[in-house]
Amino acid sequence: MGVAALSIAGLARAADSDATDAAALKEIRAEMHQMREERKRDREVIRSLEVKVQQLETKDQKVETTTQQLQNTDQKLKETTLELQQTNQQVKTLQTKVDAPIATQQFGNAVERYLGSHSFTVTGAAGGEFIYDQQSGALDDLHHASQNSFFFDWEPMILYRPTDWILFEGVFSAGFGATGTGTDLSTADFQIFLNKYMTVVGGLFDQPFGDWYENQSPMWVNRFVTAPLPFGVEPVVPPGELGIQLRGGMQFGALGQDFDYTVWGGNGPNFSSDVLGAAMSSPTSIASAETNGKSIGARFRIYPLPVDTNWGRLELGASTYNGKWANGNWFNSWGVDFNYFIGNLQTRGEWLQSYRQMPMGQASDNRQGWYVQAGYFLTGLKVPGIPDVINDYLRRFEPLVRYSGVNQRGVSNDDIQGATGVGLGGTQVGLVPDFGINGSPATYAPHSREVALALDYWIAPSIVWQNEFDIELPRAGGVFVSSTGAETPAGSIPNDHAFLSQFTIGF
Questions:
Q1: DSSP state letter for 100
Q2: Residue 31 to residues 24, 39, 195, 399: CA-CA distances in angstroms?
Q3: How does pLDDT run across 13-25, given as a tens digit for each residue?
Q4: φ and ψ of 12, to 5 deg
Q5: Taking a C-beta distance cutoff of 8 angstroms, is the pair 494, 124 a contact?
Q6: Highest-pLDDT range among 8-12, 72-76, 442-446
Q7: How far apart are CA 423 and CA 83, in angstroms?
Q8: For position 411, what pLDDT does the model report?
Q9: Four-residue CA torsion sign, 228, 233, 234, 235
């Protein structure tokens, strides 16, 4: 009974325990189900949060983009505001300029902008001159000339450049001389720039022979009032040419070591008559060119001194000019020249000679000419003991001296009595000085010599007051030749003195 009771009690406890375990298991299953539901809900919440986070991130990116756009817009607004301020200032400035009278330079710039690549420039020189020449005696059988007169000459140069590679140059002279007003066209040519080493020039141009005609003949460039004797009314080579030339240059060493060349051809030389000492007609007219041969010429110059040596600037040149006149008669010429500048000292000189074959068995018409000159700027002068204001005036002076001469077998009487002044278009000046020449008797004598003393006062680099005193050193020998060819010995030649004063402005 006891065992049975214990067994029954044990079974009861076991039954109770199974019931408890079943209830616990059910509860666990319920909790697990609840946990699954909660986990499912959590996942849905997480998914919802992820969506919201993505949406927030997208919105944040949009906000950043919008912020950047706003910043860019703000910067553009600031720039626009600044541009508007600048534009307003420019408008005010333009309005001020419009209200003010237009200046000459502004007008020229406006015209240049309107024409595009075209450019138009007027330059040149103008000068007034007084000449006093009372000759001490007359040449045999020739008029005893004198001079005590004022003159005026205007030489404008027109430069027109339609493009970067072509330039037109024209120079004419208009002056009031001994017998009135006259004009003369000395230059009219086109310059075509092929490259930096080569230029073609065609038309009417100064003779490139030597250095004087092309570079020193303008009135405000020439240090003297007159030309050296070889370049007067009885020149050794023609002063101008109608034709075409090729020119250029290049550097061959250090800076300043250069050379340049010029070769040309033209209508050739022509003379007023076929007698000794006849004046050259240059350039040759078309009518004469149809019967005369053409000319060829060449000039070469070298600059051997480098700039950084401080030895000054030296130019050495050699030229030749050859052609035919009166159909088959030869004219040959050659020359050498130099220029040397160092500090305030300037020197230059030239030697040239020519040979002209004469028709009908006449002796050849040979001519020689030369000049050498020196000038010194008193820029660094300071005389002790005098006020600085006077030293300032003294430093503007340039004293000069020149010695020149011409040799030729004869001189044409007709050319002496009817000599034409340079730049005065037919003005008959006879034996008296005129613009650009010295017309005193020794100029036309077969063997003339002259010493010229000058004192220039430079008001500005292109404004100068020049004073010149010419002393002739006549030489005996030679003949005067009439238009028929009759020769008369030159005989005694009076020693002539002349004073010339000229005020010139280059513009």
A1: S
A2: 10, 12, 102, 128
A3: 655 666 777 887 8
A4: -65, -40
A5: no
A6: 72-76
A7: 58
A8: 82
A9: positive
Residue 154 belongs to domain spanning: 120-506
> What's the rounded Cα separation, in Å, for the pair 35 and 206?
117
The answer to the question of residue 8 being in a domain is: no
CB of 29 closer than 8 Å to CB of 22: no
Q: Dump strand ranges (E) for 252-290.
A: 258-266
pLDDT band, very low/low/confident/very high, at 324 (cuts 50, 70, 90): confident
- Domain contains 464: yes
Q: Identify the H or E element spanning 154.
A: strand 146-163
In Å, what is the CA distance from 29 to each residue of 26, 33, 41, 492?
5, 6, 18, 158
DSSP at 500: E
DSSP state of 229: G
Residue 108 counted as domain residue: no
Same domain (yes/no): 42, 191: no
For residue 273, the one-letter residue type is S
Of 193, 302, 318, 314, nearest to 251 (Cα)? 302
CA-based nearest residue to 497, from 480, 474, 476, 466: 474
Does one domain contain both 132 and 161? yes
196, 339: one domain: yes
Same-domain pairing of 308 and 428: yes
What value does the mean pLDDT take over residues 76-87? Answer: 79
User: For the chain, how many structural domains are there in total?
Assistant: 2
This prediction has a pTM of 0.72
In the block, tokens 């009166």 appear at 326
